[in-house]
Amino acid sequence: MKFIIKHEIRGRLRIHVVQPRMTYAEADTLSWYLERRENITGVKVYERTADAVICYKGGRSALIRLLKGFTYEKADVPENILTDSGRELNAVYKEKLIARTVLHYGCRLFVPYPVRAAITFFRSLKYLREGLRCIKRRKIEVPLLDATAIGVSVLRGDFNTAGSVMFLLGIGEILEEWTHKKSVGDLARSMSLNIKKVWLKKEEQEILVNSSEIIPGDVVVVHMGNVIPFDGEVSGGEGMVNQSSLTGESMPVRRVAGQSVYAGTVVEEGELEILVRAVSGSTRFEKIVTMIEDSEKLKSSLESKAEHLADRLVPYTLIGTGAVGLLTRSATKALSVLMVDFSCALKLAMPLTVLSAIREAGMSGITVKGGKFLEAAAEADTVVFDKTGTLTKAKPTVKKVVAFGDYPEDEALRIAACLEEHFPHSMAKAVVDAAKRRKLYHEEMHSKVEYIVAHGISSHIEEKKVVIGSSHFVFEDEGCTIRPEYQARFDALPAEYSHLYLAIENELTAVICIEDPLREEACGIVSALKAEGIKKVVMMTGDSERTAASIARRVGVDEYYAEVLPEDKAGFIEREKAAGRKVIMIGDGINDSPALSAADAGIAISDGAEIAREIADITIAADDLRKLVTLKRLANGMMRRIQKNYRRIVGINAGLIVLGVAGAIQPTTSALLHNTSTLVISLRSMRNLLPEQE
Fold first, then answer.
1. Where are the domains of the chain?
2. Taking the model in full, what pTM does it have?
3. C-alpha–C-alpha distance, residues 285 and 190, integer Å
4. Cα 22 to Cα 45: distance, rounded to the nearest angstrom
5. Structure confidence by residue, pLDDT tens digits, 142-161
């Protein structure tokens, strides 16, 4: 790539790409390519000027070599990056705003008044039609109020006022549409799939391959708890599929051979073999966008109340206009009231505040599926934490394998990894990683694997039954035993580790000792949350009482519960809600899914099980629990802004009505001030809620 260095300081370079014109796709390609380089900390590409500002660390020469070696053709950019980046959307709406403003004021300066009046009259017909539609539907709503204000101004011959009202209404519509589409687009992109590996069925074998290698006609196997990566048709197996990410319906549906399944849905129970029909991610994106735009349940209650209140205020505005006209016998004073309505500002500012908050959350690594859940986070007074993978690090490690019986340590670990690699859990990943470190590679040697949520895994190897999981599952549910000669070894197992039990043919074979260190930020998270309004913090885990007590003391939670099942977590949350509490649940595993669904706001860790992320209302980045505090501050800030906006709208518009009735301002001025204040409040609603450091 040819480029010119326009400006540089230490760690920052501004370049101009030497080419006739930079397209949106080329700008996105360059941005995507640079953002993924380890030595680059920030990139902004300006397609209009073909400039790029690059912030970097390390040597300048390495960056120069990287830029010289770049070509658009060699950059392997995912399809959805180019189609759904939002760059073109922003450019289109900026041009719309500029064009609308230039056209309005250009006409006032250069077009004769009679021509302007004719243009205004014909433009007003659109608003008058909308008002008539309201009357036909027997509804008194905001479009009727707008139509009345514009219609009265036209009838009085006050075309300047009518033109100003329509201009400001048009600007408001553009801003609302732009922010809505951008916020929805950002949200949808954050919810889009990012599945790197899939199980490909080939010659009766399951092979783990990159998802990019899959083509239409391939058969992939999706195990319980995993996301379906592609649109396709079930060719084998049977399962219950959670389609809430696409339909909003939380109840799973049964899928068998011959039925269609869609990318992004989750196999909640069972196992499916899927004949792939399409590998593009665009279909998934479009479905998510449609779901977000159409789903009323995602709106916050305050947002819905604002919309309903706006419509309910319209009749009072019309009655007030009539009353002022009758009492004062002044059309001018009556029109001053008509030009000022509360509804317009309420309908515009409230949704913009919510959508902007969702967008800002996305910028902080927090995915929120609707304003309803931000409102729930703001109102929450109780937080329930899962332990493993949530309060503890998402990367537990195997510290020791203790053998019991005929299988040596390495063979026991190899068998355990062979079973655990099929299921998405941090403890399972620890076993698989330990086997890789010891170079214990294997072919698939077991029969169908059955996963029992919160308990363990069951399968057969060489016609021998193999189980792996918790102490309760192995010894109580499965009735496995320990040889008497190994009892002392069992009693001496290190207490500081979590234990995973492997048994073959109902006899304990090995215990895998796993260290799951506490997150560094976990000890301060409780006090930080309480500073933001949380009154009660609870930890719930399926781990032993001893391990749970140790973690609870270090973190400082108010209550903890050990050796709980998934239904216990969900039951606890339901009881708390029945007692009048607003509850947030934070988890990462399949066993957390019932509790995530039961909570007012379910929060999943981003690198946890796919089903947890799909069911959850909010997803936070896995690298830092402090994102929870950021979420709470953001939610609290959103509610404060909504309430502040409400007070401003009421105060400003009430003042304008008083001034209009008193004859202090003319209808034109009243309309101008009203619409300007609406735009200012709306623009302020689009600002970030948190300081830059957040």
1. 3-77, 92-188+298-354+636-685, 197-280, 366-393+518-620, 397-515
2. 0.64
3. 10
4. 10
5. 788 788 878 888 888 888 87
